[in-house]
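Give me the 3D structure for SbsA Ig-like domain-containing protein.
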Amino acid sequence: MCLAPLPVHAMLHHVHGTFLLVGGVSDGFCLADTWVSETGVDWTQVEGVISQDFFRAIPLIAHSPSVVDKDGCVWILGGQCNDDSGTLWKTCDIGRSWMHMPRSRAIPFGQEVPPSFPSTFRDHALAILGGWQLVIADVSPDSSEAIWRFVAPDAERVQRVGGGRADDPSRAAPLGFGLRRSPKLLATSTAGLFLVGGHLCTPGERLCSAVFNDVWFSPDGGAHWHCKTKSYAAGWDMIQLLNWHGVGIHFRAELTQDDSIYMLGGQIPGTEEASAFVYQSYLGLEDVYLTDREPFMILPGSIEMGEPPALPTDVFRLFFGEQVRPEPGRRARFVELPGNYTYENETERGEGMDDWDVRAATISTTGKELVLRPLMPLLQGRRYQVEIDAHVVQDRAGNHFGYLRGPGLQVHILEDREAPRLMSMMPGSGSTGVEPWAVLTLTFSEAVESGQGSLQVMPKIAYGAMLELPVSQAVLVREKVIFKLPPGQRYTPDMEYMVSLPTGLLRDRLGNEVAATSAGSFTTLSGVVTTSDYTGAGMPRIPTADEAVEGFPDLLATWPFQGATDVPPRANIEVFLYFAAPVEWTLVGQVRLRNETDVMTTIPTSEYVPGRPGPLDVLPQHRAVKVRLPTPGGFPMLRLGQSYTLILDSGSLQDIGMGNMSEAIRVEFKCLEMLQGTASPRAVAADVAQGETQVPGSRHIFSVWYSEAG
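Predicted structure for SbsA Ig-like domain-containing protein (710 residues):
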């Protein structure tokens, strides 16, 4: 063990229970060494620090803004010793190796077309929002004069969310705090940002007093800012002010878990003397003025911010710089702006409606937000001005806001009169070999919501299992709707199914209903499991008989059904024949089982003896007869995937009492092929979209749905 050197402007962080000290300047030389300590007393130098890029040396760190993310990775950008000041570096192994990040690409924020991401940074500040989202305050003179916010943890894409140079035609709203060098940027527990202090000293100036002691706050990741205090010393008494030397350059700021700000050290303004003081933020004295004269943002649908249109049924939020409260019972107004309605909306107004649409809204509050709930849905395709009368809203200390309206409180409403269209079904229409337990996934042209009714999944042949899948039990993920089979139910094997949607099964967020349509068809696998039991019990429901007719009774049904394709090739398969009246075997007929080419076995009806077990039986209580297929040598006669015909020759049956003889009867069926599905389950939907960028950093549970039930 040894003591670490005492460089200046080094990087110091506490990561995974270890202090990490890197770089700095000593005697005018930039250092490249790395030290670690578990206690802060004894330090060990880390040998063999490497760059993960063979063509780049590790960064030299001195006065380099740096932050730590939720995974313990340390990010740095720029600095006095770093010749490549536009490259992001990070280390995720407590300084043992460094990785340089590819150059970031600027993408639009709202409707803004941004300039290129800066290639150099100096006197900037960094923060991490939500544990992963990197934010850069590049607000020094001759900089981009902007707030940059990355949209993904890989730092490949970035947005300019605030500011911009005066000569940039696409600049956003000017930053209220102006230009300054080396401010501190701090992220709060509620994803807000504090910008603290800074200076306008020229490089190398030794006795500088051009320092800032103000604090600014942004609740929306850097897009909008308002002043929290103009001086750290606001509210101090005269004795305290006389003993206060101020906070100069090179100070350090930290934010604790309760969002308290601590100011540490720095250089006393106008001197070369270092400060030994630590300052802590507190709630403040009696509030006698409003932090801001009006709210600085309305969501959703803000026209000024370039937000997407809001829904007619949305709830709106006005964001203030401090906690506010409304007068009980008072309401806000949404006043339609002129000249913004489409042809369809014009007809909606009707004759004699010369006044613009005005809709009242209730007012409630949550902290620094006013929540506006229109009493009636707003009209599609319109723009509205939000208005709140003077003295309706006040801050926590009772200071009243004036009449609230203006361009910052204008919203536009989405117009959508087109119903969602069915785009595809999974499994695809016409698919074969579909597992009998498959999940049906429908994809629409837009996000949908649950309506009423059930998805109809009907077999082409009537004997197959018929399914009605209620939309109330489906899973809806944006534009996808996932229908699972109820527990214990499956599609009939080797059966073609038709899928159809009734009107109103689904609708979009504006209430446009999906029209009745066919989703297509699919054919199930001739697999291992059947939906029927062809041994012993017969049909689940005995068919009812119509009025008796002359001659031999009508054949009502067979079990297996005529044309069944899901008969398992096993022993003890029994065939049931149901009639309109009781029948019995004669002594002159015969029953034959034929495969696709030959007669396999023949059973004379004379072998039937009442009360004696045998291949033929009579079930008078069910108006039925039964044929048990032989099992020569104890093995089943049926084979995988083959078709069979059970033939009752003419005269094999007669009705009881009348002596009417039967004509020839044929029952056709096919055995399962006992195929095993070979297709792997596929992901059909997830609650995070491909390429989605606005995922909260605190989220750690995601859902994925697959093409087969688990």
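The chain has a mean pLDDT of 83. Let me know if you want a second pass.
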